[in-house]
């Protein structure tokens, strides 16, 4: 008859047996391949358990890496956009400098006659009221500028100096209604006077008869009369000729050669052989002396 409360080996005894068996299996596994098939078989059954146990940690690590990668991409994208904006601004400035260099080269090249002294001036302000076309440049009497000097751009005559202040000058444009300039037709040498119309794109030639030898497309140049504008500079191109049989003079209009509404740099010209001591003027300005 079996005992109701029979007891087996103690837990310590069983633990010792398990340890001894484990040591025996380790020794046998290291010294021979007898247990390799069993180990391979057990690894197949153990792998799903290992995968499930490691899955939360793997998911957490992958999520963390993805978040860090996304954050880094956002930062890199932000930096690239900022750098792109800076580079775009630099390219715009380079393009503007290139255009300015081209304008200045053209401006200097537009001094057609050798021996004439010129001075480059930059535009400061513009006053284009309906009956007053005046601009202000950044060169004045301290640079040798004086009234009644001719002013041009790379395309032709712009106007003349109306007032020379120490550090700036006022330029009256040829389109000002109060401005008149002696011109001649480049094709045949016909002399006349071009008067400002109050419009930036138009000059009037009111003193030519109906039978005058002048046609649309004729180039008008400075005649040199009056002593203000040197001879031979482009002024305008005749745009229209309308006869008035009942009146002594025809209606003749011309379009200025100079870019009066876009020029940023202008050329002030001396109409004589006198050399203005610009270096002394600039040196005096730098030392704060007159």
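^ structure tokens above, recovered residues below v
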């Amino acid at each position: 008859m079996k005992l109701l409360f029979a007891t087996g080996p103690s837990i310590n005894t069983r633990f010792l047996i398990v340890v001894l068996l484990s040591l025996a299996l380790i020794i046998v596994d290291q010294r021979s391949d007898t247990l390799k098939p069993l180990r391979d078989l057990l690894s197949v059954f153990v792998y799903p358990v290992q995968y499930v146990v490691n899955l939360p940690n793997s998911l957490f690590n992958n999520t963390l890496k993805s978040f860090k990668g996304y954050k880094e991409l956002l930062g890199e994208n932000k930096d690239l956009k900022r750098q792109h904006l800076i580079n775009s601004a630099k390219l715009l400035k380079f393009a503007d400098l290139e255009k300015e260099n081209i304008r200045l080269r053209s401006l200097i090249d537009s001094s057609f006659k050798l021996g004439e002294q010129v001075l480059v001036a930059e535009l400061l302000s513009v006053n284009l009221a309906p009956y007053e076309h005046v601009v202000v440049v950044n060169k004045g009497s301290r640079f040798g500028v004086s009234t009644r000097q001719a002013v041009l751009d790379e395309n032709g005559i712009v106007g003349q100096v109306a007032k020379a202040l120490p550090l700036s000058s006022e330029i009256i444009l040829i389109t000002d209604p109060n401005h008149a300039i002696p011109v001649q037709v480049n094709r045949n040498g016909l002399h006349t006077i071009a008067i400002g119309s109050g419009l930036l794109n138009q000059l009037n030639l009111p003193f030519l008869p109906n039978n005058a030898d002048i046609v649309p497309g004729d180039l008008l140049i400075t005649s040199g009369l009056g002593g203000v504008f040197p001879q031979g500079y482009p002024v305008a191109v005749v745009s229209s000729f309308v006869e008035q049989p009942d009146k002594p003079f025809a209606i003749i209009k011309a379009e200025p050669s100079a870019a009066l509404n876009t020029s940023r740099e202008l050329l002030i010209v001396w109409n004589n052989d006198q050399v203005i001591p610009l270096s002394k003027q600039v040196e005096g300005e730098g030392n704060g002396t007159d």
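The chain has a mean pLDDT of 79.
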